[in-house]
Amino acid sequence: MDPTTEFYVQLLANITAVIALIHLANQARLQRKAIETETYVNVNLEFLNTVEKFSENINAPNVEYSALSNKEKRSIDRYFYVANLEFIMMSEKTVRGNLSKHWREGIASAATKKHFVERWHDNSKNLALNEDFVDFFNNSIRKHQRKVGLSNQAAEA
Is the pLDDT of residue 155 over 60? Predict the structure, then answer.
């Protein structure tokens, strides 16, 4: 084979290899997106099944923690397990982007709910949770308490 023909054959082989790699990368991206979507659906179903067990007044300021039923307290524990799973999937980048941001904000918002915080303090040591999740939730509680403390100080001034 003459050098010019050999050059074009090699060039064509290289272009074909690049196109194949681009196709594989695109397939991997699509598969990852499908897995992320399936994960989102499954975890959200678990989340909805969990919060469905809460009474309508679970976040009411006039309801005392001691008035919550054991079923409601166990449902809060189950919420912590779902949030823990979400946190692990965010850490491992199973979910990313807006979904990760949405979950992170949702978990942090639970740290602003009186009965969730009380249940956390009452029972979190008995739950098998990821250490990073525990740190994140504890930090979210502290952040909210500082914010509330600053708001209360401003109101008193």
Answer: no
